[in-house]
Amino acid sequence: MLSSVLSMLLLGLVPPACAQSPQFILSNHQQAQNIPTVHESAIQARRILNLSSIATFSTIFPEDHPTTPLENRPHNLGGAPIGLIDYYASCSPTPHEPTILAISIATSFKNARAGSNVTLSLRYHPPVDHPPGEDIYTYSPANLPRFSLLGYIEPVATSEVENYHIDRCFFEGHPDAEAWKPGNAIHQSWWARLVVEQVYWIGGFGDRAYIGWIPVEEWRGVSQDEVKNARLIGEHGYQKASTRI
């Protein structure tokens, strides 16, 4: 898109007064119309968190951490990032903070226990039976929402797991994971959550979607009713004309 705009400018096909700079295309310009607000974007992100159950967990290898011969970890990985896909669930009492079944032997959780912060990255997947798009960009991955949750992992107290049936909530979305529940005979595991400290959101192309940081207060402040009633493009009930969500 940027190369096309620049080519047209060089060829004189676009009047300078009417042409938008490449930076305009990449930014949330104040003249852009119908860009969702930060709160509306927070609702969209929380909706995606609710609809999805798999994310990329990014952590940093510690500078100095003991390893075992079985791990066979290469040298000089300290400070290097690694992203690995894993399960999560949105469970009470903190549905805005992903619930995780942490496997102690897994790299993401080794790094977290060694002091690494954790980032969960998610993107929206339209339903397979979504209606046809208006053009090739409607369902383009570059135009669909994605976001990252930055924070740290903390254990969930046993009393909280029992009182809020967190195991049942998690296994509803991941029935295969019951084999790794705490106390299993395969791997040591524990219930955890990502404590969200920052949210970075890319709602789509910058001329029609918000791109930027969502204050954590906005993220936490979205109600479950707002999440339930929101509809993303491709979902049944989505109405572009009447809603910006």
Structural description of this entry:
With 245 residues, the chain is α+β, with helices and mostly antiparallel strands. 25% of the residues lie in helices and 22% in strands. It contains eight helices and seven strands, in the order H-H-H-E-E-E-H-E-E-H-H-E-E-H-H. It has helices spanning 2-11, 22-26, 38-51, 107-113, 158-163, 166-173, 216-221, 224-229, and strands at residues 54-60, 81-87, 99-103, 118-123, 146-155, 189-202, 211-214. Strands 1, 2, 3, 4, 5, 6 and 7 form a seven-stranded antiparallel β-sheet that branches. The longest helix has 14 residues, at 38-51. The two termini are 25 Å apart. The model is unreliable at 1-26 and 241-245 (pLDDT under 50).
Give a quick set of tags describing it:
alpha+beta; seven-stranded antiparallel sheet; 8 helices; disordered N terminus; disordered C terminus
Helices and strands, with pairings:
Elements: H1 2-11, H2 22-26, H3 38-51, E1 54-60, E2 81-87, E3 99-103, H4 107-113, E4 118-123, E5 146-155, H5 158-163, H6 166-173, E6 189-202, E7 211-214, H7 216-221, H8 224-229
Antiparallel strand pairs: 1-2, 1-4, 3-6, 4-5, 5-6, 6-7
Output the structural class. Answer: alpha+beta
3D shape: globular
Indicate the proportion of strand residues.
Answer: 15-25%
Pick out the low-confidence regions.
1-26, 241-245
How does the major sheet shape up?
7 strands, antiparallel
Distance between the termini: 25 Å
Estimated helix fraction = 25-40%
Please provide the count of β strands. 7
Q: SSE string, helix = H, strand = E? A: HHHEEEHEEHHEEHH
Number of helices: 8
Query: Mind telling me the C-alpha Rg?
Result: 21 Å
What is the average per-residue confidence, as pLDDT, rounded to a whole number?
Answer: 87
